[in-house]
Amino acid sequence: MIPKRKDPTKPVSEEETYDALPTWENSWIKNATLYGEMQTTSPLCYQLATMIGIMGSTCPTELKMRYAGDMHVSFFAMCVGRSGEDQKSSAIGIGRELLYEACPELIGSMPASAEGCIESLSKKPKQLIIYKEMGKLLSSANGGYLESLKTLYTDLWDCEPQQRVLANDKIITVDDPRLVMLSACSIPYLEKYTQPHDWEGGFLGRWAVMYGRRERCVPDPIGDTRHFHQLKTMLHNYAKANQVGEYLGLTQHAKQMWNDWFYELDQFEMPDLISGTRSRSPAICRKVAMIYAWERGICCNQWQLDEETLQAAINFTNLHLYSIVALNSNIAEHEDAKLRRKILNFFSDIGDVVSYGKILRELKFNRKIVDEMLDTLVHSNNLEQLRIENQLAYKRVDTFLEF
Asked: Do 289 and 56 meet the contact criterion of CB atoms below 8 Å apart?
């Protein structure tokens, strides 16, 4: 249910994302994801997360399922990668263009405060908000003036009613907020402006995180827009539909699949820094399952969540888990961890060999500090010390992965 990866420190690959795409015919999310692939070389996992969010924006307010209470559709996705290299904003922009052409009224603006967000939702309870650089929010919310906005977003993920009292004692209420957020974030921002408590089931624990790395190279990405009109028209029809039936639970096969995945997730190894995201992953999975069910049209009358729909949601959530674990290797919570990551970044793959002199020259750290960290990495079975032509070198081995 959660396939073991050969190297859990690597970003999500194109192949893994292809395997996670919906399997049913005429899937808008799948077709839109593949359309996005033709427009840009950004990682396919960014396209998938974006299109799930775009479809989620069209879901009716009344759509819900029972899971630890009433669960409604709200969906937060964050595309994480290298600044400029992985084209995170480009992927999100393709989805935004489709929604703008189909239903521009669903697109909201970045609020300047928690109060402004509530006021915006009172006028437009269902909307999509895009952060092209999530680092700006994280930097301002990390004990800054937007801390209250981060807290509000946490509540809005749970679709909790909101209210604001104005200066004239007038009360603004939002009974049924439905918010979808898509964001892009560079790794240095994520490392600098997040704290362990953000990952331990708090604010970031509610985001579906996609950590990708650009694999394709196209020298002249002019794009192929042949399917744009069809995708836009279908999206418009989804947004105008509003018939939703009563949720009757999981089918028998889906229930067995859910139980198997849930218990496997409970045993899934995660580093302490990000282990809190495990508890939110089932809820993320169920929200994605509702979006897929809406896309398939199976929830217009009384409906059950079937095996094929649930499998697609589980596949996506597994990509989220892979991303979180891989990011842990690239996000350091203290200075020693940052130096450790910098040294390991010299080795692209297991088996790579780098000379001791190169590490010293490029790090520009005190030799004693570097020696201590290299010794630590040898003892932790990340590196192996070698002698090549009488020169000291290190080889990436990661033998701990074999146990």
From this structure: no
Q: Which of 372, 299, 377 is nearest to 344 (CA)?
A: 377
Q: To which residue do tokens 């073991």 refer?
A: 4
Q: Within 13 Å of residue 257, how many CA atoms lie on the same side as its CB?
A: 19
Region of residue 223 (phi > 0: left; psi between -120 and 50: alpha; otherwise: beta): left
- What are 384's two structure tokens? 């192996």
Query: 72: which 2 tokens?
Result: 């409604």
**What tokens appear for 330 in the block?**
């690239």
User: How many other CB atoms are there within 10 angstroms of residue 368's CB atom?
Assistant: 8
pLDDT surpassing 50 at residue 276 = yes
Radius of gyration of the chain (CA): 22
Place of tokens 């049209």: 297
Q: What is the pLDDT of the chain when averaged over all its residues?
A: 90
Judge contact between 317 and 288, C-beta under 8 A: yes
Report the C-alpha gap between 296 and 23 in whole angstroms: 11
Domains of the chain: 14-328 (3.40.50.300), 335-402 (1.10.10.10)
Q: What number of residues does the chain have? A: 403
125 neighbors 61 (Cβ within 8 angstroms): yes
Contact yes or no for 40/81 (Cβ under 8 A): no
Distance CA 231, CA 235 (A): 6
The arithmetic mean of pLDDT across residues 222-239, rounded, is 91
- How far apart (Å, rounded) are the C-alpha atoms in residues 374 and 339? 10
Helices (H) and strands (E) in the chain, counts: 16, 13
Question: Which residue has tokens 């060999």?
Answer: 353
Digit-coded pLDDT (tens) for 334-357: 677 778 888 988 998 888 999 999
Taking the C-alpha atoms of residue 325 and residue 332, their distance in angstroms, rounded to an integer, is 13
**Confidence band, pLDDT 50/70/90 cuts, at residue 139:** confident
